Amino acid sequence: MRRVKDHYDVLIAGSGVAGLHAALQFPPQVKVLVLCKKELLLSNSALAQGGVAAVVDKEHDTCQLHIKDTMIAGGNQNNPDALEVLVNEGAENVLNLLDIGVDFDRDETGGLQLTLEGGHSRRRILHHKDSTGREMMEKLILAVKAKSNVDIEENCMLADLKQVENGFLAYVLGDGHCTQVTANYCILATGGIGRVYQYTTNSAIATGDGIALAHRMGAKITDLHLVQFHPTAFAAKQNRERFLISESVRGEGAVLLNNEGKRFMDRYDERLELAPRDVVSRSIMKEARRVGSNNFYLDISFQGADYLKNRFPTIYGRCLEEGVDITKDWIPVFPCQHYLMGGIHVDLDSQSSIDRLYACGECSHTGVHGNNRLASNSLLEALVFSRRAARHILNRMASEPHPILSKGDDLPLDGMPLPSGLRTQVRDIMQSAHFVVPNPVAAREGMKRVKKILAMLESSHYAVTPDFIETKNITTVAMIILEEVNKP
Ligand SMILES: Cc1cc2nc3c(=O)[nH]c(=O)nc-3n(C[C@H](O)[C@H](O)[C@H](O)COP(=O)(O)OP(=O)(O)OC[C@H]3O[C@@H](n4cnc5c(N)ncnc54)[C@H](O)[C@@H]3O)c2cc1C
């Protein structure tokens, strides 16, 4: 917090691929602050394994095919205009990453190695082994840190945001202090909502902060009930954060087995293990009911050990830590929360319904994914729409005078401690009300309970701490989802 100034042209909340890629676009005369709630490599972006989709092989692939595949996965509920932007601008955004040193895997001729994933009709996934997100993040961090106009602050949380004349007043929590910062524009890039659920593949930062903040400011939030559940997360019961066994493992031939060690996907879908995520997740839940067991496995052990260790080094290493050798053993898997399709409603320039407030990445809702995201399209969305946000802001800045902004009251850092167990209550409600197969009765009862918890958090004088803010945000997100689900 030592370096934080009183005023910036642009405040970016979030330092995943969306936030950092936005920051990278601003020229030296534009002063930018990037806030990162925890450490820079703690984000969903850094966890992305499979890769990023883009039509770079113009000989064998077309934008029309990528659009078609995305529409099929999204149940034709995608926003066609946003999808065109995503796909048409995708390749340029992804290839620009080569300039900052992102090391996508190459084939024997030195060309980019493109892989296939479930739902894609062509090889169009660029990847760096099975740690694509981390590779992108490491290079983006270096590139943004080299920019003298950008301050990046780790362990600094955007706790509250107020609209003031010509911009925003932000309350930033860090080192036990609260600092007020003004900015003419704000980009929310705070990521997903995984921590609203008991089990998720998401990192600890995914508490829906930007969405809850935007909602409190009156911004339009859309389709928050569109939550994606990944069918094959490592089933380690003791951890909230579940390690993902990526689609590409099934892409390389892994089969799904029930508690009796039998394949079962042919009962539910002719595409078998490579059916879309929602179909595989629902099939697992149906099979669980049929056989009366939640024990499911992926088997890829028939592939050579050398091949597996080289193709999936991260998955191999992580499973080994859990006592599972994927070259010999079946991998225990079960569906869990993975991704949010809905979010802060934005237009094609990533503008929210509030003037000067932008959103991009997983916290935003461009509509590109429709009802269900196609694998490897979300890093692409984060890249394309973060650049659009930055460019739109730059255009506006050129035609506006520089405003002077004011300060507000401080946040109450002293107050009652937060009662324990509130987050657990909310997570239990969401797990039973709105998991793979929604439960309308649990959703109705859950909404009443969630509203009570939120009313208590808002009316009592709790000390404003990161824990308090996150608990309030998780509860707000749960409430919006349950309100949408319960709408007649
Ligand atoms: C295990 C896993 C594997 C995945 N694999 C793929 C894949 O192969 N391909 C693909 O396309 N997508 C994949 N995804 C999805 C993709 O990684 C994410 O959707 C995308 O990276 C989101 O980027 P983001 O920048 O919006 O959010 P994040 O990367 O999650 O970043 C959010 C940032 O916001 C910050 N933040 C949050 N709240 C606050 C606050 N209040 N104040 C300040 N900062 C805050 C956090 O600290 C963090 O820096 C995967 C996701 C997971 C979880």
UniProtKB/TrEMBL annotation:
Keyword Zinc: no
GO-annotated biological processes: 'de novo' NAD+ biosynthetic process from L-aspartate
InterPro entries listed in its UniProt record: FAD-dep_OxRdtase_2_FAD-bd, FAD/NAD-bd_sf, NadB, Succ_DH/fumarate_Rdtase_cat_sf
Origin: domain of life: Bacteria
Domain FAD-dependent oxidoreductase 2 FAD-binding positions: 9-379
Pathway stated in the Swiss-Prot or TrEMBL entry: Cofactor biosynthesis; NAD(+) biosynthesis; iminoaspartate from L-aspartate (oxidase route): step 1/1
Matches recorded under Pfam families: FAD_binding_2
Cofactor: FAD
NCBIfam families linked: PRK06175.1 (NF004820)
Protein name: L-aspartate oxidase
